[in-house]
Write a structure and sequence with these properties.
single chain; alpha+beta; 2 domains; 13 helices; rod-shaped
Length: 384
């Protein structure tokens, strides 16, 4: 697994841990409301937590939230069963409001412990050691949440309100989750696309470059030129760079500069006396890492459209490293035969996209084209 995939998996794992923490805190706050509401001196926390009505209230809405968020809503979206989803929500709401009545059951915990008006009147007039009269006590016929003289409540209105709030929060949570998952998938797709473009750019070893270089080395070998061995060595080093670094995320900038030097030296084998090539490298003592094949394509482009064996050609290359930046200056004359060819500019377009992806807000690319010259300046704002 490469560094980008590893960082992506770590980021997803961190997001899951944060999500679990948020859920835990949210439900802890939700559970604390009944405890704080009843903990007014009449009931102890232990009595509240061990009351079945407390856990019926908690379980109803906790189960409702997660079943709705993770089962009902995904099923309704995936199968397009929105009417069935609406019917199931209505039936669940009726079940809570008319039968389970979790909020009324919760309120019954406090009403069971609080004295009725008859009990308070009896306690004020009689000795507290005597029990109150039967008429002042709770009637055995009363249901959950009823006091003496009250009619049964057919619908638990408070539970309906909490039910609607829970359903809404579950839907909102699922919508936000879907949006975040979509954004993550889009980022992964963008990363895969950029990797494919980078691999394509790294694999662009032009056949005509190899053909011309081998022909030039062959011509040198026929004359027993001493440059044959060094030329073969440079070609092998450049091919190794093309093959080995295509799977690397970042490399030492000196490796890229060495590849540029090897490429220029190999191109010099096919130049004549009418071609002038200048190189300048400064600040190489500053250690830096860059993404592979960010600088080399601009050098390749200069030779592709600026080198001519017929008319005079001028090419200049400059790489300057500072503690906070890397500057590449490339200038070449435009050969007549290159202007007559159809120029797609695919290579530079790919490099521009790579720069936007890897060095967003950390680079400046300047391209100037005149009648007979082409100038490129790339500044990467990277520290040592």
């Amino acid at each position: 697994m490469d560094k980008s995939a590893d960082s992506t998996s770590k980021r997803i794992l961190g997001q899951k841990q944060i999500s679990i923490l948020i859920h835990g805190l949210a439900w802890l706050i939700f559970l604390s409301f009944p405890v704080l509401f009843f903990n007014n001196g009449q009931l102890e926390i232990k009595e509240i937590l061990f009351a079945p009505a407390f856990w019926i209230f908690t379980g109803c809405f906790l189960i409702l939230f997660y079943v709705n968020a993770y089962l009902l809503i995904p099923y309704a979206i995936r199968k397009r069963k929105f009417i069935s989803y609406g019917i199931s929500i209505i039936l669940t709401g009726l079940l809570l409001a008319c039968y389970l009545q979790p909020f009324d059951r919760l309120m019954h915990i406090g009403r069971q412990q609080l004295p009725t008006p008859g009990e308070r009147e009896f306690s004020s007039r009689h000795h507290p050691d005597f029990p109150p009269p039967p008429s002042a006590r709770h009637s055995p016929d009363r249901g959950p949440g009823q006091t003496l003289g009250q009619r049964p409540q057919p619908i638990d209105i408070a539970s309906v309100y909490i039910f609607l709030l829970t359903i809404s929060l579950a839907a909102l949570y699922r919508i936000v989750t879907y949006w975040m998952e979509t954004q993550q998938k889009m980022q992964l797709v963008e990363q895969d696309r950029m990797k494919a473009e980078l691999s394509f750019l790294k694999a662009q070893v032009h056949p005509h470059f190899l053909f011309n270089t081998l022909n030039n080395i062959y011509a040198l070998a026929l004359t027993n030129d001493d440059a044959v061995a060094s030329s073969i060595h440079r070609l092998s080093q450049l091919m190794r760079y093309y093959m080995d670094e295509r799977h690397s995320d970042t490399i030492d900038i000196k490796i890229e500069i060495q590849a540029i030097q090897d490429f220029i030296n190999l191109q010099k084998l096919r130049t004549g006396p009418n071609c002038s090539i200048s190189e300048h490298y400064a600040g190489l003592e500053h250690p830096k890492t860059i993404h592979a094949f960010v600088l080399l394509p601009f050098v390749e482009n200069a030779f592709k459209y600026g080198l001519s064996t017929i008319e005079p050609s001028q090419l200049s290359f400059e790489v300057i490293l500072t503690p906070t930046s890397c500057v590449l200056n490339v200038k070449n004359s435009i050969a007549t035969q290159s202007t007559e060819q159809h120029r797609t500019g695919t290579g530079l377009k790919n490099v521009k996209r790579l720069l936007e992806h890897f060095y967003a807000n950390k680079h400046r690319l300047t391209i100037q084209q005149e009648d007979h010259s082409f100038f490129v300046q790339l500044i990467l704002y990277i520290s040592s």
